[in-house]
Design a protein that fits this description.
The structure is a single chain. The protein is of the alpha/beta class and 338 residues long. The protein is 38% helix and 16% strand. It is built from 13 helices and twelve strands. The protein has a three-stranded parallel sheet with strand order 1-2-3, covered by helices on one side. A three-stranded antiparallel sheet has the order 4-5-8. A hairpin with a 3-residue loop joins strand 6 (180-185) and strand 7 (189-194). The radius of gyration is 21 Å and the shape is globular. The chain starts with a helix and ends in a 7-residue tail after the last strand.
Length: 338
């Protein structure tokens, strides 16, 4: 019943998303790093493109530290990110804002969803979710099979005695208009996902009480007035889930631009976990931010050569049309460091 009442509004949302990019709002962008380790080359690239887009539009930049996960609750690492951004010359107009200071906002959002019967407790273990036979969404998370969707109150009570519950958001059944989300990405163009098929009911709060990524970024972007989200291509599949949450919570939707990934020659994406090209190493290799940024601009097609340039000097070269043409992932091999 709740979902069917939303179908007309979500249809309007999808139609608007296909019509183009928002142009009637002042541009507000954000960089939202997680202090799980030192920034690596891929993080630097995403931050650079986000910053250039905002500055080229004469907009406002927000720095948000996404530190809700206990593994990211490291003040020293957060300070290191701030210092590294200063070194790169990527400034901001608001922040740093820390997610751990915003828990009441996330609680309120979950409560609003609960009041409407849109969430339910889930007791599935990580092992069950990652069963080899389960399909996976584009971001690697398992497509949820709905195992706990229709538990009775008695079953829920029995399971609570064994383990704490996570909370999942119900998505419309496959075939429902409200469950098909379409939008135009500024780099990769038209993108459509059917929520029931491509991700299933997704988490808004983990079993350890930590609010889930999809929920908190939606709340934060809305509360901070973000109009433009720029991030790595690996998060392209998150946009439909976030757009659906934005609709349910009554938030305006930003435009989305997902940029190419930086990958190793073997096709593996660069990551903090593997300590790939962290900024400490990059500082030692390139010596100056201008040399590093010039190399990244050339790799992305924004500059004709890897001439050293400051972030400020790259603003006039920035163009989304160029990034659309150079949308393939960028291979980082030894020649990048020469």
């Amino acid at each position: 019943m709740i979902i069917s009442k939303m179908e007309t509004a979500v249809t309007n949302m999808n139609t608007a998303g296909q019509s183009g990019y928002l142009t009637d709002r002042a541009t507000v962008g954000r960089f939202a790093p997680s202090p799980s380790g030192r920034m690596h080359l891929g993080n630097v690239f995403s931050a650079l493109i986000a910053w250039l887009s905002v500055r080229a539009a004469g907009g406002r930049m927000v720095l948000r530290i996404e530190d809700l996960d206990p593994r990211c609750a490291d003040a020293t690492r957060a300070e290191q990110i701030v210092d590294d951004l200063h070194w790169l010359g990527l400034d901001w107009d608001e922040g740093p804002i820390y997610q751990h200071d915003r828990l009441d906002l996330y609680r309120d959002a979950v409560a609003r969803l609960e009041e409407r019967g849109l969430v339910y407790p889930c007791f599935c273990t990580r092992a069950e979710l990652h069963a080899a036979s389960a399909p996976h969404a584009s971001d690697g998370t398992p497509v949820y099979a709905g195992t706990c969707r229709d538990l009775t109150p008695q079953q829920i009570e029995e399971k609570r005695r064994v383990r704490p519950a996570a909370l999942r958001l119900r998505v419309p059944e496959e075939g429902a208009i409200a469950g098909t989300i379409s939008f135009i990405d500024r780099v990769y163009g038209a993108h459509t996902e059917v929520l029931a098929r491509d991700c299933g009911d997704f988490l808004v709060q983990r079993s350890d009480g930590v609010f889930a990524y999809q929920l908190v970024v939606v709340v934060d972007d809305a509360e901070m007035g973000v109009t433009e989200v720029v991030r790595g291509r690996d998060l392209l599949g998150s946009a439909p889930r976030q757009m659906y949450l934005q609709h349910l919570l009554g938030y305006e939707q930003p435009t989305y631009a997902h940029v190419p990934m930086l990958i190793a020659p073997d096709g593996r994406r660069l990551s903090k976990r593997e300590h790939d090209c962290d900024l400490g190493e990059l500082k030692r290799t390139f010596g100056t931010p201008e040399r590093l940024l010039g190399r990244l601009a050339a790799a992305a097609g924004l500059a004709p050569a890897a001439t050293p340039r400051s972030a400020e000097q790259l603003i006039d070269l920035f163009n989304w049309d160029i990034l659309q043409v150079h949308a393939r992932d960028i291979v980082v091999d030894n020649s990048f460091f020469v």
